[in-house]
Design a protein that fits this description.
Shape: elongated
Number of strands: 5
Distance between the termini: 24 Å
Order of helices and strands: EEEEE
Helix content: under 10%
Structural class: mainly beta
Strand content: over 45%
Strand order of the largest sheet: 1-2-3-4-5
């Protein structure tokens, strides 16, 4: 789940570029990266958190009601943990490319 703020600027008639920044919630359920170690917690544990995400995109309005857009977003997950006096961390990037078709009503 993501919650953010979007800003957009019209470059030419009917064509806009946009940027978003916000907070994304992620959850690994029973498959956290820390389970790859011998010091991992019991299988009932999970990993989740909230991190910032960023995106850039563009939209073209075909009419007052119909538009088509594309947007690329990046979420960097960074997590630290400690289990039985053993600490560790993991990080990775979640990249997303979306094509959006919209109807304004």
């Amino acid at each position: 789940m993501r919650f953010g703020i979007k800003g957009e600027v019209e470059l030419v008639t009917n064509f806009t570029v946009n940027a978003r920044v916000g907070l994304a919630h992620w959850s690994y359920k029973n498959y956290t990266p820390k389970k790859l170690t011998n010091f991992s917690p019991p299988p009932v544990s999970d990993g989740s958190g909230n991190d910032l995400y960023y995106s850039l995109g563009a939209e073209y309005k075909f009419s007052e009601d119909l538009y088509l857009g594309i947007e690329y977003s990046l979420l960097s997950v960074n997590e630290s943990y400690a289990v039985n006096d053993v600490s560790g961390s993991f990080s990775h990037d979640v990249k997303d490319l979306s094509i959006v078709a919209g109807w304004v009503f």
